[in-house]
Amino acid sequence: MKLRILSENLMAAVTEAVRAIAKRSSLPQGDCVLLETVDGHLRVTGTDLETAISVYSGAQVEKEGRALIKAGMLARILGTFTDCAIDIEPDGKHGLALSSDGRAFKLAGMDPEDYPPIPETPEHLADIDPLGLRRALARLLDCVSTDDTRPILTAVNFAEHNGTLALAATDGFRLGVVDTGWTVLPSFPDMNVPAKTCRELLRLLPKKAKDADAGDPVQLHVDAKAKPTQLRFALKRQEVTTMLVQGTFPNYRQLIPATFDTSVKVDTKALRRELQAAAVLASQGSNIVRLTIGPGDELTVAALAEEEGEFEATMPAKVEGEGKIAFNWAYVDDFLSAAGTDAIELRMTTPSALGLFLPVGDDSYSQTIMPMFVQW
Question: 123-252: which CATH architecture?
Fold first, then answer.
């Protein structure tokens, strides 16, 4: 392998790929990044055997090749180069020489043939909007379980619903659902994508419409369309390949309340402000906040800590019916943070039934939250 590349481009590629590497690996190759030339680019890959991140960077490639180099040492060395072009060429059997402006480093390497192979994912499933995917994942990741004893709940579910792509996540206490509206074929497989992969993807996806890659769709590829075990998200400059979590995701549609007796619509920022005030006391106990809807167009937020004190705040709201219900304040706060609209709606029937939270004016997203049982 022989090429020239800008130091900042190589550093950025290595920094992104390293995030996929396990902190502790039983394999010596597990601490390495794979550098290889592909179609006039340098591709840098890191993996923990479950998730792989590959980053493509423009380079002047003189000779094709591959190299396997310790990631930590390579990153530290690259940190000594500033705004310059680096020449990379072989050194010894598996090593590399990096040089620029009279400075040279020689790095020992390993046989690239010993690097864990990244699974092939030849089957193209869909092209999806990167900004929409980012927003969907940001809304759902708080709902993912951190309990490894139920692996299926540590994933975000991707599935076809009524001809479009739906994403969902649940920890057993709350359920977040995003109906994206993106058309997919009826044959689109049901897939459970690890939360770790989704978080890395969230970090790589463009944040705003003016970002360089915002207009390029994210391509979804799998190893087999019928029962896939591997999924690849192909962005313009990066690829994230992951093992899917095997198992059947809960049939969550039946859990979403279809009818309600009481509805309250309230300003998102105002509710969050009072909710966080209530949390000062609620967090001293079981994190319980009590919501009283009506009578009249009012919503009351209350919290009680037996040995500390009480809190109550009333705010204007648009109310249909009357009701009382209690929730874990942190779950409601997570929803409010992700809502993205000026107002939200809570629908409920009884204090012991699931509550449905919706952003007003955005019917693509909902959270169903289990109530807390209290003495009223």
Answer: Roll (3.10)
